[in-house]
Queue: 2 jobs
Job 1
Amino acid sequence: MIARPNPSRPARTAPETKSGPAADDQLDGASLGLINVRPTPRQNQSAIATVAALFIAALSAAHYASLPLPHFAAFIPFINATILVTDLITAILLFVHFSISRSQALLILAGGYLFTALIVIPHALTFPGAFSPTGLLGAGLQTTGWLYNFWHLGFPVSALLYTCLKERNRIIEGPLWSAIGWCATISIGLVLAIVWLVTVGDALLPRLFLNVSELSSLGFQVTYLNLLIVALALAFLWIRRRSVLDLWLMVVACALINELALASVRFSLGFYFSRVFSFATSTILLAVLLAETTGLYTRLALANMLLRRERDNKLMNMAAVVASISHEVKQPLASIVMRASTALRFLGHAPPEVDKVRSSLNKIVKDGHRASEIFDSIRDLFRASEQGRVKIDINEIILNALDMMHWELTEHHITVRADFMPGLPAVMGHRGQLQELFLNLIFNAIEAMDGKSGERVLSLKTERREGDGLVIWVTDTGPGIDPKRLDNIFDPFVTTKPQGLGLGLAICRMIVERHGGQMLASSDQGGGAVFEIMLPANSGHELS
Amino acid sequence: MSGHSVIHVVEDDEAMRDSIVELLRDGGYIVRAYTRAEELLARGATIEPGCIVSDVRMPGMDGLTLLRRLRAGGSAIPLMLITGHGDISMAVAAMKAGAIDFLEKPFEADELLASIAAALPAASGGTAKGSETSRQLLQKLTSREYEVLERLVSGKSNKEVAAQLGISPRTVEFHRAHVMEKMAAKGLPELVRIWLSADLSQLTK
C-alpha cells in the first residue's frame, strides 16, 4: 500500500513551500486576492482621496480642539457599540479570508480587530458618567484612560505583526477551527487581563487623568507614544506595501493618527471629533472588505461558470462521441444480422437458393469490413490529436486540474492534500490529455467520497522514480475498490455509478499508456482507493 | 401468402435498406425503398396501401415526424419503426403517436416478417381483446416489478431506474428478467407494446 508522508499537511501548504514559484502563483490565483492583488490606479486614487479628506477634517477641527462642549456621556456607549459591531464584522471577514489563504499574517490582523472590538465594551462600561457616575466594573479614575490606550494599541501592533509576517508567507497548518480558536482565545484573554489590570491595579497605574475630564502631562505623553507606534506601523506598511489590503490598512493608520492627535480634554470639540474618527477607523476596512469580497465573488463566480462550462463540454463531447460511434457501428452490424438471417431463409427454400446465399454472404463480408473501417477511422481521429507533444510539468498539470475542480471539492467538503516533489523531470506529452486524466481521477474521487461520512481527503503525491521516471499517487478516503473488481476496473463500461458510462478509468488508462506509462489501482489500508500512475520522463528535459 | 401488399422501406443506410428489401421481396411483398422520409411523404395520396417500415434516426426528417405528418395528412397506413439502441424513449413516443410497432436493431429476418404480417391491415382486429390480456399480464407483477417496468418503458436505462428507485443496477436487471418472464416478452419492444396496449389511462379512470 501507499505510504503517505506528512499526512497532517493541509492542502494548500505543500505546493507553496515545496515547489517552485510557478506553483506559488497558481495557488495565489485560486485563493482570494485581497492579500495578493496589487491595487489598481483607481483604488490608489480613492485611498489618497480618503486620506486627504481625513486630514482636512482633522486640520479644520484642530484649531478648536480644546473648545468645551456640553457633557454628553451617552455618546461613548453609542459610538463604542457601533465600533463593536463594525470591528467584529471586520474580524469575521478577515477570519474568512484567513480560512481561504491560511496566511498567518491575516490571522493576526483578524485577532487585532477582534481585540479592538472587545475592548470597547469595558471602555464604555467604565467610562465615568456613561453607566454610572464613576464607571462600572469597579473602575478608578485611570481605568478608562488606560483602556483607551490599550485599545488604540490593538490596530498598530497587529498591523506591525501583519507587515512583518506577510512577506514570509507563513501558512498555518492543521485544522482551521483550532487556529481561529487559539487566535480568539488570545484576543479575549488579552482583553480580560487588561481589564483586570486597569481595574484592580488602578491605584498602582501611572496617572493619565488629573480629574474626570482633564489629561495629565503623562496622559498626553502616553497618547503621543501611542501615536508614534501608529506612525511606525504606517511606515512599515508603506515600505512593504503590495496589496489592496496594505493600501487600506495605511488609510486606517492615517485615520488613527488623526484620532489620537485630536484626543484632548473630555467633552471638548476635539474629544467628540476624535471619537468620530475612531468610528471611521473601524469602518474603512469593513467597507473595503465588503466591496472587495463582493467584487472577488463576482469574478470567481464568472470564472467558475466558465470552468464548469469547459468541463461539461468535455463530458458532453464524450457522451456524444460514444453515441455516434455506437450508431455508426450498429448500422453494418444490423445489416449483417439481417442478411445472415435472410440467407438462412434462402437455404431453407426447396431447392436451396445457393446463388442468393452466396450473394448475401459476399455482402456480409463487405459489411464486416465496413464495421471495422469505422473503428479505424475513430482511431485515426484520436491519432491526429497525438501531434504536438510538449514538455510538461506534471505538478503544474495536477494543480490546474485541482483548480478546475476547486468548487466541486469545496462543495463536497473535501480536503486536498498535495505533496509534490519539486524539480520533477519533464514528461513529453499531450497537455489536454494529461489534464483530462487528472480531471477524471479527481472527479472519480469526489464521486467515490460522496455520501460518505467522516473525513473526506483527496491526496495527490508526486515523486521522482529511479531511472528517469515519475510516479503519481491519487488517493481518496471513499469506500475503496471491491477486491473482486480490481481486475476489470479499467475495462470500458465497467461502472458502479448510476449515471456513469464507465469510460472514465478506461480513458485514463488509455492516456497513461499512450504516454508510455502504467496505471495501477489498489485499495488503501484506510479503505479508500489508490491510483498509481507511472510515467516515463526524459532526463534531457529538466524543468527549470 | 401476403397477396399484393406493398411495404414501404424508409432507411438512409444503404446496406441496411438493401438487406431489408431483399428479405421482404423474398417474403413475397412488393417493396418500395426510400432513402429519406421526405421522398415517401412527397408521394402523398399515391402511396399504395400496405405498411411502412421506417428508421427512426435519419438525416433530414426523422421517423417520428414522418408518422405525425402522415397522420396529420389523414393517412392511417400502419407504420413500424426500427431503432438503434438508446432511441427507446423516441420509439415509445412514436407508439403513443400511433406507430404500430418498433424493432430494435439488430433484428432477424423472421422478427421483421412476423411484425409486418401482424401489422398489415388484413391481420389486424382484436386490439380490445389484446388490451384485456395485457392488463391481466400486468396484474401478475409485484409492485416493485411494476415500478421497474414503468420506468423501463418510458425509455430509462437500467442504471437510471436503479438510481431513481435507490436499488442497484443488478437488482434492476433481476426484476427486469422476472418481468420479461411473466409477460412472456422477448425484449423491451414487446414490453412497451404490452404496456401501451394495456392502455392504463383507461384503467385508472
Note: The interface with chain A takes residues 13, 15-16, 18-20, 22-23, 26, 57, 84-86, 105-110, 112, 159-160, 162-163, 169 of chain B (CB under 8 Å).
Job 2
Amino acid sequence: MNTPLSHYLILSALLFSIGFAGAVSRRSAILVLIGIELMLNAANLNFIAFWRYGPHAEALTGVMFVLFSIAIAAAEAAVGLALVIAIYRQRKTAQVDCLDTLKG
Amino acid sequence: MPNDIAFYLIAAFTVAFAAAAMTLRRLVHCALCAAAAFAGLAMIYLQLDAEFVGFAQLLVYVGAIAILIVFAVLLTRGDEVRPGRSQSSPSWMAGVAVAVLVLAGMAIAILRSPSLQRLAPSAAVAPVKKIGEELMTRYVLPLEMAGVLLTGALLGAVVIAMHEESEVKRPARWPASKPAESGETMSLR
Amino acid sequence: MNALDQIFVLAEHWLAGLAPAPVRPLVSMLLIIAGLMAVFGTCFALTTILERKTLGRMQNRFGPNRVGPFGLFQPVADGIKMLIKEDIVPFSADKAVHFLAPLALTVPVWLAFAVLPFGRNMSAIELDAGILFFFAIGSASELAVFMAGWSSQNKYSLVGAMRAIAQMISYEVPLVLASIPVLMAAGSLSLPDIAQAQSGFALGWVPRWNVFTPWGLAGFAVFFIAAAAESNRCPFDLPEGESELIAGFLTEYSGFKYALFFLGEYLGLFAVTGLAVTLFLGGWQAPAQWLEWLPSWGWFAAKFSALIFLFIWIRATLPRLRMDQLLNFAWKFLVPLALINLFVAAVWLKFPAAMPIRWLLCAGLLVVPYVWLGRRWNGVTPKQRQYDYAE
C-alpha cells in the first residue's frame, strides 16, 4: 500500500463536489437525490480511508460508522423517492423549479 | 505497485461515471452511471481491506438503491426527452462554480497538511466476527435505532407513494349491498 | 484416497509451479478461472440437453434424439445456430445499454463461482465474508435485467423486465433470511468453514448436515423455492413465459446475445444450487463413513446433480404462478416462515445437544405456523363475485 492517505481524500473531495454540482444545477428532483447519494458515498469513503490509515484500526470505529451510514442512506433514498413520486402524482412534474407554490 | 495502479484505475473509473451521472441528458443513463460509480466505490472499499463494507455497499447501493432510482424514474416519466427545455436549471453555472470552489478549498487543505501524506500502517483487518460482536455489545443501541428507522422509512415510503383509491370514481356495482373495496391497492401504473 | 481427493489442487499447484515466480499468482488464478469456465460451460451444455430429455420423458415423449447418440450433440447444434443467427438490434433501441445488458448479466454470475467450495480445499477464493459476496453479486445482476428490458424500447420487454425485477427483489429476502440460521450454526460467513462445520456424524450414522435438523429442513425448503424464483425458473418463470409476454425482457435479443442471457440464467441456477449444497447438504461431505472413498468433489457433483434434477422435475410438474400469486407467496408466506425458522434455529442452538426434546420442540414450533399460514392461503373461500357493469 504505497498510496498516501491524501489521494483517497482527494478522490472523496472530488466525488463530493461532483455530487454537489449535480444536486445544485440539475432540474430533475431525482438527479438531486442521486447527487445527495454521491455526496454520502464520498463521506463514507473518507471514513473508511481514515479508519484504514489511522492509529487504532482494530477498534473498527470507521467501519461501524459507514455501515450505519449506508443503512440510513438507504432509508433516506426510499423516503425521498417516495416523496418525488407523490409530488409527481399531484403536480404532474418532477422538475424542482416548477415546485414553487410557496414563493411569495 | 500493482495495488497503486489498481487504485488509480478504479478511481478514474468512479470519477468518470459520477461525472457522467450528473451530466447526461436521459435520466435512466444517469441512474445506470450512478450505479457504476457506486460499484467503483465498493471496489475501493475492498482495496482498503474493508471487506464487509464493500459487499454491503454492493448489496445496498447497487442492488437496491440503484433499482429504486430506476423505478422512480420510470414512475415519474422522467425519461421522456423534452426537446425545447434544457435539463439544467438556469443558474447552473453558479452551482458548478460553488462546487469548484468547495473542491479547491478541500484539495488545498488536504495537500497542505503534512500529517495526511502518511503511508498505510500494517494491514488492518475487519473480521466479520468482530463486527458482529461490536454490533451486539458496543453499538447495540444504534443497531436497534437503525432497525426502527428502517421500518419507519419502509412504512412511510409505502404510505406516501401508494395510489389513492378514494379519488377514483367507482362504477356501479352488483350486488349493490356489498360495500366497494376500501382497501388501498398498490399499482405499478 | 487423499491424492484423488486433492487431484485438482495438486494439478493446479504443479502447473502454476511451471511459471516463473513473479507471475505465479496470476497464472494460478488464470488456471482456476479456466477450469471453472470449462467445467461449468460443459455443465451448462449438458444441462440443456438433459433437461429437454427429462422433460420429454416426464411428458411421455422422447426429448431431442436426432443429433448424435441419444441427442447428446444437441447443445453443439444449438450453439452453432445461436452463433450464426443475425444480430438484430431494434432501430429505436438504446444501442449502448442494449449491448451492455447481456454482459452485465453474465459477468457477475461468473464471479459468484469464486467462493463456492467444490471439494476439500477447493474454493477459488477464501473470503471472510464469502456468503455476503455471493448475495451482493446476485443482487448486482438485477440491474442487467432492467437494462435489457428498458433498452429495447418495447412495451412487452419493459413489462417483462419490471415483473422480473419485482420477482427477484421479492425473493431475495427469503433467500437471505433462510441462510442466516446456517450462519448462526456455523459461526462464520466463510463458505469453506460452513461446509467444514457440517462434518461428523450424530448417533454414529446420521451426518451432521444442516438439512437433517428441523430448522435446516424448513430453511432448505424456503431456500430452494426462493432459488427457483431468483433464477426465473418454472413455476416462477412468468417474466419469460412464452405465452404471456413473448419472451419478456429477452424479446428484442437474438443470436449470441440471447445465448448469453440463456447462459447467464443457467449459470445463476448452478451458482445458487452450489450454495444450497454448501449451506444445507454439507458441501463436499460424504453421507457415511464408509463412503468416503469417493473424492469430495465427486460428492459435491452428486448432490449438485440431484438438486438440478429436482429443479427439472419441478419444472415438468407444476404450472406457472401468476404475478400476484408469486408476490403474495413471497411476502406473506415465505418471509414469515423464514423469520420463524430463524427463531427456531436460535432455540435449537440454545438447547444442549444431549437433550433430544429439542427435536420435538423445534419441529412443533415450525410445523404449527407452516400449517396455519398455509391454511390461510389455500383454504380461503372466494368472495362473492362483483360484477362491474358499464353505465
Note: Residues 52 and 128 of chain B are 7 Å apart (CA to CA).
